[in-house]
Every structure is written in structure tokens, then in C-alpha cells.
Amino acid sequence: MITRVTRRPRKKRIVILGGGFGGVYAAIHLEKLLARVETVEICLVSRDNFFLFTPMLHEIAASDLEITNIVNPLRKLLRKVEVVVGDVNQIDLPNKRVLISRGYRNDSQQVDYDHLVIALGSITNFYNLPGFPELALAMKSLSDAIRLRAQILQHLEEANSECNPADRQSLLTFVVAGGGFAGVETVAALNDFVREALPFYPNLCEDMLRVMLVHSGPVILPELGENLGRYTQKVLARRGVEVRLSTRVKSMTENSVFLVDSVAIPSRTLVWTAGTVPSPLIFSLPCTKERGRIRVNQFLQVSDWPDVWAVGDCAFVPDIRNPGKSHPPTAQHAIREGKVVAQNIAATLLGRRLKPFSFRTIGLLASIGRRTGVARIFGFNFSGFFAWWMWRTVYLSKLPGLDKKVRVAFDWTLDLLFPKDVCAVYDLDHNRDFDRRDHTRNALGNNGDYGVTARQPVHSSLGNGLTRIAPLATERYGWANSKD
Fold first, then answer.
1. What pLDDT is stored for residue 405 in this prediction?
2. I want to staple 19 with a disulfide (CB 3.0 to 4.6 A). Which of 101, 373, 435, 447 is the partner?
3. Given a cut of 60, is residue 471 above it in pLDDT?
4. For the purposes of burial, counting CB atoms within 10 Å of the CB of 319, is it exposed (0-12), middle (13-18) or buried (19 or more)?
């Protein structure tokens, strides 16, 4: 008798690159759709082992929330997905493989795929401005927010014992570049934090403080329209923030920030939120790009590579309702892109019809400090306390995990009753050199953003329009950012 050995078919592997909104939500929905399909395995590659809820990042910098309350462990969110923590070094589309490095020893690992979802996000773009990569602070990752909070407190400590008025002024001047959601929410939170911390420093007073927002346009928050932008400017000015419009920051030294109109501002703190660029890994891929992002079709497939998909900040997703335009690279869009790409990959594996991606922005919200906000929902404008309440309600509902929701709500309640914490628990001096090395090895960013902060402009010959003349300035906050 001849015994036949039946070989089990090799499992189809779906690999997702990036642990941000697009990548994580793609994994969540794939896990649900393919839970009973035993011939498919899902792998998520992320630089960090957690998912960062970026819309609340400025509240970490302002000591409103505890550090771990806006992060969720990926292994807790994705019970049936293989989570690989490492840096993506190379994407080999012809051979359908990804090369990553893991651990402190940078051990190399090859990950093969049958379907690939690229959700590598974006990184801060400094446009090769002098002094920025070494001295300016970004607001893209959890470490950025922690570092900003630590630097603010360090400068308050130094200024409290500084006798030289010029040095003290540079320590107490804080500049934020970029008047979009990220810049406005950051400067509002920073301003509140610094002013509430002053009573703990007996040698300092509010007259010594200078908080400035620099924006290249005629009105801040242009996404919300002129009326809400003007309202926000008035609120910030009333609370002591100096808003400079129609100008830009051109360079920085250890003690000064210089504007394009030759104005020198004595400051040792510059927060840069004025531009982003897709992950550097995207530039080397042999696929069509638009404005530096991977161009996909209405099904989120990459042209000429039917087994490759792209979502989030690194993808140029055409808007089928408005030919020639694309969906904005925001969180609320990335969440839905992740869901649609999961449905389409499942449909491909199961022989079903693909679903085109189409979505209209529901609303945009921004917190501008001291229980005040601005919002545009379904075309209607809101401002003041009600808009701030909507901001917190919407974001709290979108924060993954019941335990995190409870912790954040508890933190917000305590913030109403007690003064802000002014403990500088982050060893800024010890980590400064490490962070600069981190820049050098192309690894700065949150868990969905691979690559280094861009130090040099990318020439138009690459077809991405990322030169200083035509910057890709993507803001990361507001409801549009929260992706819902």
C-alpha cells in the first residue's frame, strides 16, 4: 500500500510596515476579516511596540497627561497579528521581501510577503535650514513631547538663578514655527504650562516670558477658515502669545532664532511644526510618486505592483469625487484607508470585488488652551468652551482601549483640581547626544514614521515637489489628524 503525504499549502503572508494610524487600523480590520482563514498570516512591523495617539501629544508636553496614557501596546491591540519590532532598512518589491534590523545589535532579518501594506508615515522636514537638525525640537513622537517638556523646565530652572538679563531673556523666550494644527495646539499648551509653572520660581514673573508663534500665511489655522483663524489669534494674543504672520524662520543658533525679515529673536527654544516629508524609504521605491508620496489607485493599490498597497501620510490617495486632487494625509483619513485596504486585501484573497476608497472630512478641531477650542463640523463653526468640550469628547472616544480612556479622563479631572507637575524627569543632557545619533541613523519619529528628520531638500527631479520652494507641509493634529 502506498501512503500519500499531503502537503499543507504555504500560508499567504500579509506584511504591514508602520505602527501608526494607517498600519494599525489595517491590521485590526485584517485580523477581524481573516480570523477564520487559516491559510493567511498577518505581520506588523513597527519601530516601537506601541501605538501612539498623536492628537494628544501636546498634552504630554504640557504635563496635562501621563506619558503612557496615550500609548497602547501593539500586542494588546492585535492578539492574532505577529508584531515585529524593528527598523525597516529596505523594501525589495521585485523579490517581495523586506529587510529589517532588530534589537540593540541591529540584527538583520528578512521578511517575505505575498501582500505588502506600506504605512510608513512622514517625518519632520527642516528644509536644510541652518542649525535646525541640531537645535530645533519637533513634535512628531513621544520622545519629542517629553524632550520639549524637559527643556522648558530646564530653562525655567536656569532662568530662576540667572543674573544676566540677556541670557535670562533667551531662556524664557519660546518660539513655535508653523500655524497649523500642530503649531497652534503646541504653542497654546506650552503657553499655559509655562505660565502656570511660574509661581514655583520666585525670581521669575510673567513680564519676563515671551511666547511666540511664527506663521508664513496671513492667518493661522487656514484649514478652519479665516473667521476661526482670526478668533484663535485674538485668544492667543489675549493670553500673552505673540503671533507673527506672513514671515518665516530662516535659521537658528544656540541663543537666537532668525526670521526672514532679518529679525533676531533671543531664544534657545524653537519648536518646528512647519513641514513634513514622507519616509526616506519611499524615495528609493521603483513606483510612481506624486508630491513625494506613493501614488495609489482608487483601491489603494500601488500602480504596476498589484500586491503592494499604501495608506496614510506616505500615500497619495486620489479623491474620486474631485479628479486631480488627493485625500489629505490626516489621521481620520488614514483610519478609514486602513479599513478599506484591509477589506480589499481580504477581497483579493477570497476572490471578491474590490471597494474604492472615498471619504469626506467630517470635521476639524483644535484645542487652543485654557478650556477653549475651535471646530468646524459639517461646515459649521464652533468656538470657545463648547468647541473645547467637543475636542476632548471626540478624542477621548477615539482613544483605543477602555483603560486608556479612563486614565486620560482621570488625568483631565486631576488637572482641574491641582497645579501642573513641574518635575523634569527626562535626562535631557544625557539623551541629547543619543537623540542626535538617532537622527543620523534615520530612526527618529513615532511608531508609524520611519526615517530621519529631513535635513536636506529633495530636488524636484525626484518628482515630489519637496524643495524649499514647494514644501510639503502636512500638519498632524486637529480632528483631521485624529483620523476621526
1. 96
2. 447
3. no
4. middle
- What CA–CA distance (Å, rounded) separates 470 from 83? 37
- Cα gap 289→304, rounded to integer Å: 12
What is the C-alpha to C-alpha distance for residues 91 and 332, in angstroms, rounded to an integer?
27
pLDDT at position 479 is 43
**139-170 pLDDT, tens per residue?**
999 999 999 999 999 999 999 998 899 999 99
Rounded CA-CA distance 284/252 in Å is 31
DSSP structure string for 260-325:
TTS-EEE-SEEEE-S-EEE-HHHHTSSS-EETTEEEB-TTSEETTEEEEEE-GGGEE-B-TTSTT-
Rounded Cα distance, 16 and 26, in Å? 8
pTM for this entry = 0.85
Secondary structure letter of residue 64 according to DSSP = S
Beta strand pairing status for 40-46 and 50-52?
unpaired
Sign of CA dihedral 70, 73, 76, 77: positive
